[in-house]
Amino acid sequence: MSYSMWIILTASLVGLSCGLIGVFLILRKQAMMADGISHTVLLGIVLAYMVTQEVSGPAMLIGGIFAGILTAFLVQTLSSLKVRHDASLGIVFTSLFAIGVILISTSVGNVHLDVKHALMGEITFIPFTTMDIPLIGSIPKATALLLLVLLVVIFFIVAFYKEWKITSFDAALAASLGIPVIFFHYLFMTLVSVTTVASFDAVGAILVVAMLITPAAAAYLWTDKLIVMLFLSGGFGVLSAIIGYWIATWLDTSISGSMALATGCIFFVTFLLSPKHGLISRLVRPAELREEQEA
Amino acid sequence: MVSSVINVDDLSASYQKNKVLNDVSFEVKEGTITAIVGPNGAGKSTLIKTMLGLHPKLTGNVSFWDSPFKTAKKKIGYVPQRGSVDWDFPTDALDVVTMGLYGKIGWFRIPSKKDKEKAMNALKKMGMESYAHRQISQLSGGQQQRVFLARALAQDAELYFMDEPLAGVDASTEKAIMTILKELKSNGKTVLVVHHDLQTVPEYFDHVLFLNKKVYAHGETEEVFTKDNIATTYGGDMQWVGKGDQYVIQSTSH
Predict the structure, then answer these.
(1) What GO biological process terms does the UniProt entry carry, in alphabetical order (chain A) (predicted)?
(2) Would you state the pLDDT for residue B132?
(3) What is the chain B residue with the closest CA to A292?
(4) How far apart, in Å, are the Cα atoms of A9 and each of A1, A34, A201, A247, B213?
(5) What is the DSSP letter of B15?
(6) Which one has a higher pLDDT value, B206 or A205?
(7) What whole-number distance in Å separates Cα of residue B5 and Cα of residue B64?
(8) What is the mean pLDDT of residues B215-241?
(9) Considering the domain boundaries, does residue A245 fall inside one?
(10) A108 vs A115: CA distance, rounded Å
């Protein structure tokens, strides 16, 4: 496969996994948690590097899971101590991120890790680091990692589909039925973390937030069915990846930046055209229908 | 001898560092409908949540049929406040009702045709079958409350907890809900309802529990639903606008 095909494939995998996870971030009203975790996984990755002295996929995943759960746990603890939830998140993620930045520049400097790379990602270099997988052949390491994470994400979404639905919609009922709501909260944070870590190399910490939230927010405006929202959101993620690559080649600019721009464009088009919530449908809808819906 | 379904002993709980329940003790007999009344911030919702283990307790003990919540939970149905969920969630009425069955369906399984039928029957009971496939944000407040009631019916529990099921609903919904509550009672089920409208207490409930951080009075409505008990429970938090024997009270709650 050519370099550009690998890049498009990798970007699409980012779009797909982030799109699926993003649906639940939006529905659980935890979009800002993604912002937090996308930063704190940096600490996890740095710690993983310090322990293993190499940049390897599995170690990074474990480090990221550790950082993600630590973030969720600290935010929960602070809010239970009467700090406002949004403030708790602001305190926790900036502090953990700062520790990560300091560790990068003092302890592990001059390796593959650096702050700019962590924030922006560099998908262009992904095809250069490959590994051999039996039967498939040589594929880029980051792509393999993303593929693995995508399978994990899909597995958990399918296996616990009704549990995700009920804990997202009505956590109190779920708890009264004996469904372990707290366990699912942390499992979800783990999934957000692994998705973020795997996407890290490709799009970086800041743009992964765009990939996590924007396609799902757009999908939310198109449909009234959870299952459709999942497919749409994943689809928008992949579409953003492809459009983003195309914009980047055309303007000769950053691929990850263009991908984020593409998610924004898709959201904007949705906002104008969506049948139920869109700006245009609101303007052209007959007045009596509008009244009935608002009543 | 009618047996006790609920035994609450010396229960206390706090909410954001303020103690909202203090030494709450009471018993509920099988086949009764109890109204839990009290002013805003009296801890009515917290009481229900603490009993169901949704809110941490500080002291005390709650048992259902002489066993802890964990072993009894399959026989308990819970109707949270309507405002506690996001009605823009992408799902329809039938799906919400089906959620009441998730505890019984078990891990790694999706709702079967039978489960969907059960949910549909519950919707029918609440007169909502024609709205089964309507997105939940397209329902009126009363219809949303009926969906919540249907979900509890689908659970087919022995004991129901309902948090303000009659708050902000239209007259016909109120009637429909009360008919169902009476039907539940005649089938020997036990119901606890957080209620805000004192006027309707004598008509709707056979037992009443006055709560304002602690239990002020509890018993059969005929005996304990008196002006005195209302006055001590609500304290300065109310005005009498009533005439004669009617308990028309405007409290600062809702």
Answers:
(1) response to zinc ion; transmembrane transport
(2) 95
(3) B138
(4) 10, 23, 14, 16, 60
(5) E
(6) B206
(7) 5
(8) 83
(9) no
(10) 11
List of domains in chain B: 4-89+157-251 (3.40.50.300)
Interface of B with A in 9-38 (CB under 8 A): 16-17
ipTM: 0.87
- Closest approach of B230 to chain A, Cα-based (Å): 30
Question: Regarding predicted confidence, which is higher, A15 or A277?
Answer: A15
Domain membership flag for residue A46: yes
**Cα of B222 to nearest chain A Cα, Å:** 32
A291 within a domain of the structure (yes/no) = no
**Secondary structure percentages of chain A, helix, strand, coil, to 5:** 80, 5, 15
Q: Is residue A277 part of a domain?
A: no
The pLDDT tens digits for A31-78 are 999 989 988 988 998 898 888 887 777 888 899 999 999 999 999 899
Across the interface, of A178, A229, A293, the residue whose CB is closest to B90 is: A229
Residue A78 sits in a domain whose CATH number is 1.10.3470.10
Q: Does A221 touch chain B (CB under 8 A)?
A: no
Question: Domain range holding A190?
Answer: 3-211
- With left for phi above 0 and alpha for psi between -120 and 50, is residue B161 left, alpha or beta? beta
Q: What is the pLDDT of residues A121-146, one digit of tens each?
A: 777 777 877 888 777 778 888 899 89
Q: How many domains does chain A have?
A: 1
Q: Enter the tokens of residue A228.
A: 């459709």
